[in-house]
Amino acid sequence: MSNDVEHAKRALRAELRERRQLLSDAQRETAAAAIGARLDALVDSIGARSISCFLSTTTEPGTRDFVARAAGRGIRVLLPITRADGLLDWAVATDDGEIAEGLHGLPEPTGEVLSPMAVNDVDLMIIPAAAVDRTGMRMGWGRGYFDKTIGSMQKCPPVYAVIYDSEVLDSLPREVHDQPVTGVVTPTQTLNLSQTRH
Q: PANTHER family attached here (predicted)?
């Protein structure tokens, strides 16, 4: 059974990845600006003083300007650093935003490394995703970092996935370890989805 789910996910990820690669630079920039404005509004509506976010890759919906802006406004922004054991360390974003290449070729911050526990203090988590369905079920890119992180938190804050509009799907294949998100932020909307956060 889980083999079928894994195959379905793999096929869907490939399709979503390809769709993202077809976007033009202009489309990416427009989307990043719109998402940044929505993330600013989300942070303000929650009154978040400390958040976690991620540094977007070229094909992901852009978060880097938002991160620099939030850090510049005095909000503590934790950025993930991947570890070989499947957990995430964290570093505090700075406005100069120095970036290095991490374990999987992902952009990562260069600041002082904090333990996986550091994320327990944030008021809001902003995470990447390949797609999210209308029940709040999130599908990532298959490494499980954010599922592990969210699943291990004693008191999980609101979790929002940043995706493109076409990646909000009616339903997704799911496995036991998959963690739901509170909502999604796309270029055109901020959607609250999951009522079942732990």
A: 5-FORMYLTETRAHYDROFOLATE CYCLO-LIGASE, ATPASE INHIBITOR/5-FORMYLTETRAHYDROFOLATE CYCLO-LIGASE
